[in-house]
Amino acid sequence: MPPDGPISEPDLLDVVEQVGLYPVEAFEFVQAGLRQTVETLKADVPAGESRHVTGQELCLGLRDFAIDRWGMMAGTVLRRWQITSTLDFGKIVFAMIEHGLMSQTDDDTLDDFRDAFDFKKTFDSGYTIACKL
Q: Is 114 within a domain?
């Protein structure tokens, strides 16, 4: 479950410093993508009820969020942040959980994020640019 509001900069920087692999922008992206995923999934939940977002659902939501935000450049942006697979999303999420910035259920595991979709196929293939002659 996402935090109620944006994570404070000192808290987020503390997590980034301890994890060491991903820049702060990657954590901010996951946080914003989680919010969008929750909002998208909320349409399927009766009013007044809440629903947990699974690792697989979050990965798909982050995929869509990246494509909406950066289009054909999504893969390039994510790779620049050392995100090259859906497991990287999970590592970011679990770092935030470990530091109390997100919550989890007893059933959530890092493995839930493994191979949710193929990064290369999603972000590096299938793009065509139409040319009018």
A: yes
